[in-house]
């Protein structure tokens, strides 16, 4: 007879820590004209919210840290204050 | 250049602070390790950012364990898996407090016994999880909540302590150099026995830096030589590319200090001591690299 | 129940002697326990061990305060320890000695020169004559257990045949 | 019956461990337990036990490595004593909370200062709230049998809690008694840990556990602790059926018609039987209850209307003897004369115990060896 003990066992599930996009004060806005798709923004995003192919930023989860903006060699990502 | 897999092993999104260096490092550690991996995590920032029961964000098993206990837990796990004939990677991901302070006894024991696992210390130079109290890894001059006027003694040289165990593989890394992390983890996991990687992971709230500066500050650490990237495979000691470049003409460490709020109480005298420490360390590392090359 | 207290010095094998005594009694179909009293003493300090032999399982763990027999492996312990303490009236004493000894008349005294036997049999380890196997021969003679069981207890513990021949020599030497 | 072999309590535990075939044994030496792990290290070196012996650098790491190994679904054993057990304390809670069926040999020894290596139950009793099952044994045979049963009980899916086998330091760990080294056969079924770690079905263990559920996990431990009473009785019955030696959670000796019952654990509880024999010869109707399973605590002790002389080889400072206190709490009508005896190896004979009974003063506490005027 197999009985699973009740304890803190967790399974993988997106959003397990909530929708971290709500933490944001500043939102990254990409100037797609200037962007040369180097991918450095995606590489350095701690949260991996930038799609490595399309370089679309997932604003549901982006915490707005601004590393992408700071590291962009083209300086084509601006951090814009969120309006609520 | 190594092709780093696009697949992310962490689901969106761990509840680390915005701009977390340790999370950036973990992304690349898990990419290198792949699915056949178990993470062992002692009390640290990474023990609380995994999501809330009954869910988590990691797509590999995670075993959370007590603060002092990571290396011992990984020892038991690795021995059991190997006894069963399983090759699964066992990777400890621990902070500097859990490594250099409370966990050092278990770490030393595991390294001495030659246990087959990879221990990674992400070093944010204080007890970040509990709000930045000083640790043995906090550098000279840094303000923490328990060193309100700046730490008056040096950072513990964890790497030389670990080195004294004569591991098959040991390296340093920094979250600002993800490809370097990826390669070092790959290399480490290809070698049986105990492996150790020490990753400098800037912490925006703890270091009093804006969240967008995490990568930049890490690079400044390497460029000033206060943090040197190297690896040691058996007896072969190599300075990694970013530090090789930096060591030719290190940036003044003062710029690194000035960029962080935690060093705001460092006076000129202390700054000079820090610079002297850096110079001395760089000399030692250059010498070790040269000696290692000679014996090649 | 028959209770035996063994006096020896650390390193002389008193503990192993106690175990072999109990083991021999068990081979005879009895119940027995052997219980060393451990202290922080090191090699050379006087130590005591206890053996209890009974027809029923032994349920007593405390020390033996009123022994039926005392075994003195090293007579020099008598300088510092009152070995006769609590010995029952009519109780027995076995002592390893080559000299004349005198004990109060109410006790039955037996002796053999175990040290001499060990030296003759070349039963010496690290410079010390081994006493714990010859004493098994002596005690078999006193009827604590059968001669066969004593030999078995020795051979299970020590492979070297010098041990059993020393025990046989002691068996012969004791006068009952 | 197999041939009887002479063995110390320590070696009997090691022999039972060899029969149970754990795959991992992390261990650290401490007097008077060391002989257990030395024997196991010998078995492993000789290839008689196919296990990984991990010579850890501390007891904290011994229990932690046991946890790390156990969660992979393998059978794990370790052993300790006294300060070693206390050094494990944090991880004892962890092992139980992580629901890992680790089995541990525990040799009861007192605590410093000053240095003292002799028997006392304070080490294990101060771990009573960790969620470990605790059994106290009184003979070499029982040490062997209880160790075999411990694996089966711990690993039963209705329990999944660790088990500690307690034996008195030196008095039992180092005594030599004849015992039967029974081959357990299939008495211990293969371990099937329902929550074992699996890279093909990744799960997180022990992350943030919110306040609105955490208590449920603790209740599940208690539920299984309660259920373990049934599992223990079933296991002991099955053991008796297969091997002919029967045990109960509380061993009774002439209790039915007794006016006064000595209650104790470990070797004191066994030697108390000799005290009862002595008292009965004097016309005092005495009996003995030897508590074997202290956790889960026995709830069906037949003590109504009898004088109880409870001997505690332990003490809870500012409260009283631990066993006396627990009996009083669970049986509010119990009439107890509490005796504190045997601390730090203090010599207590069956004659002393008989005297505790003769001179008992109900509802008082008596420290053996302390002059009456100081008590």
In words, what does this structure look like?
The complex is a heterotetramer of chains A (84), B (296), C (176) and D (375). Chain A has helices spanning 40-44, 67-71; strands at 9-12, 26-30, 77-81. The mean pLDDT of chain A is 95. Chain A is elongated, with a radius of gyration of 17 Å. By secondary structure, chain A is an alpha+beta fold. The termini of chain A are far apart. Chain B has a single domain, classed as Rossmann fold (3-Layer(aba) Sandwich). Chain B has helices at 21-33, 45-48, 70-83, 96-101, 104-113, 158-163, 178-189, 204-207, 214-224, 241-248, 253-258, 268-295; strands spanning 37-41, 55-56, 62-64, 89-95, 118-123, 169-174, 195-200, 230-233, 236-239. Chain C has one domain: Pyruvate-ferredoxin oxidoreductase, PFOR, domain III (Pyruvate-ferredoxin Oxidoreductase, domain 3), CATH 3.40.920.10. Chain C has 5 helices and 8 strands, in the order E-H-E-E-E-E-E-H-E-E-H-H-H. In chain C, strand 7 and strand 8 (128-129) form a beta hairpin. The longest helix of chain C is centred in the N-terminal third of the chain and has 14 residues, at 14-27. The model of chain C has no long low-confidence stretch (mean pLDDT 93). With 375 residues, chain D is an alpha/beta fold. Chain D folds into 2 domains: 4-243, 3-Layer(aba) Sandwich (Rossmann fold), CATH 3.40.50; 250-374, Rossmann fold. In chain D, strands 10-12-11-14-15-16 form a 6-stranded mixed sheet, sandwiched between helices. Chains A and D meet through strand 1 of A and strand 9 and helix 8 of D.
What is this structure's SSE topology?
The complex is a heterotetramer of chains A (84), B (296), C (176) and D (375).
Chain A: E1 9-12, E2 26-30, H1 40-44, H2 67-71, E3 77-81
Antiparallel strand pairs in A: 2-3
Chain B: H1 21-33, E1 37-41, H2 45-48, E2 55-56, E3 62-64, H3 70-83, E4 89-95, H4 96-101, H5 104-113, E5 118-123, H6 158-163, E6 169-174, H7 178-189, E7 195-200, H8 204-207, H9 214-224, E8 230-233, E9 236-239, H10 241-248, H11 253-258, H12 268-295
Helix pairs in contact in B: 1-7, 3-5
Chain D: E1 4-8, H1 9-20, E2 24-27, H2 34-45, E3 52-55, H3 59-70, E4 77-81, H4 82-87, H5 89-97, E5 103-108, H6 122-125, E6 133-136, H7 140-155, E7 163-168, E8 176-180, E9 204-205, H8 211-243, E10 250-253, E11 260-264, H9 266-281, E12 286-291, E13 293-295, E14 307-312, H10 322-330, E15 335-340, H11 350-358, E16 365-367
Parallel strand pairs in D: 2-3, 4-5, 5-7, 6-7, 11-12, 11-14, 14-15, 15-16
Antiparallel strand pairs in D: 1-8, 6-13, 10-12
Short account of what is shown:
Chain A: Heterotetramer of one alpha, one beta, one delta and one gamma chain. With 84 residues, chain A is α+β, with helices and mostly antiparallel strands. In chain A, 12% of the residues lie in helices and 17% in strands.
